Amino acid sequence: MHRPRLLAVSAAPLAAVLLVACGAEERDTRPPSVPTGVTAQAGSATSAHVMWAAATDDRAVTGYDVFQHGRRVKTLPGDRTMVDVDRLAPSTTYRFTVRARDAAENSSPDSTPVDLTTAPGPGDGASTAPTGLTARARPARSS
Prior knowledge:
Layout: H1 11-21, E1 36-44, E2 47-53, E3 61-68, E4 71-77, E5 82-85, E6 93-102, E7 114-117
Antiparallel strand pairs: 1-2, 2-5, 3-4, 3-6, 6-7
């Protein structure tokens, strides 16, 4: 009579398959919180300082995206909550929003928008006629 052979199987690979099948390695699908307290200040006629309070996440905030009129203009690491936006036009109004990102690339909704008008540049504004001018006649010279 033949006896059936028993195969030795390592438990580690089987345990890993069971853990994944049971969802033990859960994907991060939760986005970070919305960045709050967004402010913008004119740095000059052509730049702005945009600042915000740090967002939170169930794992970690890894970055921020700063948008100007809905177009991303800056991408920053998660430990930064301030950026200078350059190449703006003088005496122009801009709208900024901020989004937080996590390692799984989940993005928060946009922050509350904040508007900023840059400072006037050199030569901006209406020219005015000079005032307080005086003139004196000079005596004629003879040669």
